[in-house]
Amino acid sequence: MNLAQAYRKLEGAGFRLTPQRDTVLRLLARHADASLSAEDIVRLARDEAEIPVGLATTYRTLELLLELEIVNRVRAADGRARYVLVPEIVEARAQLVCTRCGQVLPVPGHLVADLEARLADAEDFRVTAHEVKFYGVCGACRRD
Ligand SMILES: [Zn+2]
User: Fold this and answer.
1) How far apart are CA 80 and CA 55, in angstroms?
2) How is the beta sheet containing 104-106 ordered, strand by strand?
3) What is the DSSP letter of 70?
4) Rounded to two decimals, what is the model's pTM?
């Protein structure tokens, strides 16, 4: 997710965007190609002239961001926890595509929600986004 989405999620959950929280989020966004440990964030804040953050504040902030699903925690080979912004959520999209006339129709939302709930039960997998196409022949083409 990008910074604007992270801000919206934080404030939408009733938390203020403090300068320290802003620093942590900006560093995670700026270094999105890496995963950062809490120690990395404290050092980068100093090196990159952001608002300084202490280690305890950084840990508290990361815990909050984890809870709000703004960041993911990953375990590096050295066993140290590292943090990354959660990947950008693609638009939820399930479509029916007619291979004869090319018409594209949306799959009704409740069918997709039902499938996601079944996946959660059967596969122990929580879906956060989807993009699916079903190919076939629409009713009008079949009647032709
Ligand atoms: Zn068709």
Assistant:
1) 14
2) 104-106, 93-98, 131-136
3) S
4) 0.63
